[in-house]
């Protein structure tokens, strides 16, 4: 039975999609079967793996809004064991359409439950908001990973996110656990970055991943080639950092 991990932070540009793609790649490289569900209408996870985002009739929108079977929509990536349930811009409209639906918070959870048999991990890449798509993703999850960019306003918004996680736990999904906070875009030469790292450890004692993702041009460039770091630059620092994250995730979810 797959463990479902939701990668969530309502801020944009903090490294959610980069983490989703590269964590999925290394989980697969370590022998796990992984499905990445792209829940962002910008479809960056889909595009970043070199998968066409133009398929208007077979993407996660149709799964959650029209109850279509996700199985035939799943695409294999260039990495063995790593599949994607793609998104498309149509998903932007789903937020509004879901509002009037029954069981609107449970639609993703219900759609994914038959797929749990086929994978070791299902990762969900969230949009940059706390709207119904993110609520669906948190309701479907067993765990949440919170990427935090090492910048001045890093902690801002985190209390709101944790409040949302608590509300979901009380009302919609009592199983949800914070697996960890992941520091991203870290530059050890930058004093502010080091300060933020210490602050995050102070605020989340014992809940920060040992793996820290450095700021590197490799991670910024890889998506434009439709490749994860394991293929784009397998010997880079970023590659070993994401491998380490995958190892930690496996250990924590055993
Ligand atoms: P989100 O999904 O939270 O909006 P992304 O993963 O798309 O964030 O990252 C935002 C931008 O920063 C992207 O252009 C991405 O390529 C780049 N990026 C992400 N992580 C890093 C990193 N560790 N170093 C350098 N650039 C990064
Ligand atoms: Mg994203």
UniProtKB/TrEMBL annotation:
Lineage: superkingdom: Bacteria
Q: Under what name is this protein listed? A: Sporulation initiation inhibitor Soj
Native organism is: Candidatus Yanofskybacteria bacterium RIFCSPHIGHO2_02_FULL_38_22b
Domain AAA, first and last residues per copy: 3-178
């Amino acid at each position: 039975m797959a463990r479902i991990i939701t990668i969530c932070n309502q801020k944009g540009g903090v490294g959610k999609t980069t983490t989703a793609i590269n964590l999925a790649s290394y989980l697969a490289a370590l022998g796990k079967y992984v499905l990445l569900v792209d829940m962002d209408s910008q479809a960056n996870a889909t595009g970043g793996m070199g998968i066409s985002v133009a398929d208007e009739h077979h993407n996660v929108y149709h799964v959650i809004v029209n109850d279509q079977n996700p199985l035939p929509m799943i695409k294999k990536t260039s990495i063995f064991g790593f599949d994607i349930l793609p998104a498309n811009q149509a998903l932007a409209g789903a937020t509004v359409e879901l509002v009037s639906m029954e069981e609107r918070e449970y639609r993703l959870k219900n759609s994914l439950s038959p797929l749990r048999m086929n994978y070791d991990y299902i990762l969900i890449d969230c949009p940059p908001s706390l709207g119904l798509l993110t609520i669906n993703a948190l309701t479907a999850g067993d765990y949440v990973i919170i990427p935090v960019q090492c910048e001045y306003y890093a902690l801002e918004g985190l209390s709101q996110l944790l409040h949302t996680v608590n509300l979901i736990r009380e009302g919609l999904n009592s199983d949800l656990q914070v697996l960890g906070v992941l520091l991203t875009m870290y530059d050890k030469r930058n004093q502010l970055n080091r300060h933020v790292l210490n602050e995050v450890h102070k605020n989340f004692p014992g809940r920060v991943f040992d793996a820290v993702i450095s700021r590197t041009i490799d991670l910024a460039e890889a998506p434009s080639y439709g490749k994860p770091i394991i293929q784009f630059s397998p010997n880079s620092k970023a590659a070993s950092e994401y491998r380490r994250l995958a190892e930690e995730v496996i250990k924590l979810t055993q």
